[in-house]
Amino acid sequence: MKILIIANGFTGTTLPLANKLAALGNKVKCFYIVERGSKSIESLDFDTPISIGCGKIVYLSKKNKLYNYLNLNVDIALMPTWKTRRRLEKIGIGKVFPMMNSFLMLRYVSQILKEQPDVVNLIVHNTKEVFIANKLKKNGIPFTITYHEVLNRLVGKEDLRRVVSQTINLNTPIICHSKKTAKDLVSNVEGYDVKPYIKVINFGPFESYLSYGNGYLPQGVPQRYLLYLGHIHPYKGLKYLYDAVVMLGKELGPVKIVVAGNGNDPILEQMKQCKSFLLINRFIENAELVGLIKNCMAIICPYIAASQSGLVQTGMVFKKPIIATRVGSFAEFIRNGENGFLCESEDAQSLALSIKSFLNNEKQLEFSDMPSNLNWDYIANEYMTLYNNMANI
Questions:
Q1: How far is CA 368 from CA 109, 156, 364, in A?
Q2: What is this structure's pTM?
């Protein structure tokens, strides 16, 4: 079977899937939408910064270090687009970039259609994928839609993202990666019965990070540390992490808290003044990410709200426990006291108790028994069952 995977990023979930689908004898191509000048996306560094070209798809060299992990039967194709600039939109010139991207997407879709795939797995995250979905539908190509995020905002009023609203009625299978995401989708759809189209298929460990070996550590990282990693926003709950650390005080001993990621939150100013924290407030490269996770004691996710987070599956690759709040899908993947600890959201005391429980039981945590639904062999077979049914094989 010829399978295409199309996404704007999300390589952590799609590359291991492509690897397993190829191992089952399928011909697999991954098409990734990237912005002009990009050097990398999640778990994938390009050979050179991507130039815009003339709408031509660029293939990743099989000499790329990713192929230390990836099956050689998987092709990686990059579709460069212009980066939109909101500042320039105010003076009119910024509107040129979306128009140019529309032209580029027409070129790319034309090239994708020439592949004549048996099925396409399309991850819908922005308007470019909405455009692709409608073209696939018009041309009669079987495809699935995957939603990583279905809500417009995670805190406050729940409503569907615009791109979800524009694609849920295409009468094609919809894949959600957690029960929580599927529930959010069903409860926010009006006037359309989406249940018959939804299938929950989890994603497994982000194995593509294995291509980075040991990675490397940024300067100043202590020997023993707990790690917060990812974009920094107020809904990620760093305020409660700060308060929990203050509560623990000397009980932390020599353990530090490393907060690494780009973004802003007012609590960062207080973290800078606290000796228990090391703040790395910038974009974290893939090799740094691997180094930080591989050398940490545990990953902390003090989120106020979430859908699903790839940090659990990234931690699994390096057998790192997760300390997380009971939001989103964390409780679906974390077995309290076995591969991590769960605590209540917006509750610094509960988080402090979970950190303390981890420190007291660090050596007893087990990672040998991965649930079958998070095993990539199992996941690939779930996809193949769905694909075969779509292709009437």
A1: 43, 38, 12
A2: 0.91
The Cβ-side half-sphere exposure at 42, using a 13 Å CA radius, reads: 19
pLDDT tens for each residue of 203-250: 999 999 999 999 999 999 999 999 999 999 999 999 999 999 999 999
**Complete DSSP assignment for 211-252:** GGTT--PPTT--SSEEEEES-B-GGG-HHHHHHHHHHHGGGG
| Rounded distance between C-alpha atoms, residue 23 and residue 115, angstroms | 20
Distance of alpha carbon 260 from alpha carbon 277, whole angstroms: 10
pLDDT band, residue 393 (cuts 50/70/90): very low
Interior angle at CA 196, CA 11 and CA 170, nearest 5: 65
The candidate with the shortest Cα–Cα distance to 294, out of 361, 206, 204, 196, is 206
In angstroms, the Cα distances linking 129 to 18, 32, 102, 133, 146 are 19, 11, 11, 6, 11
For strands 74-81 and 58-59, give the pairing.
Answer: antiparallel
CA-wise closest residue to 77 among 65, 60, 64: 60
Helix, coil or strand: residue 77? strand
CA 166-179-362 angle, 5° bins: 130
DSSP code of residue 336: B
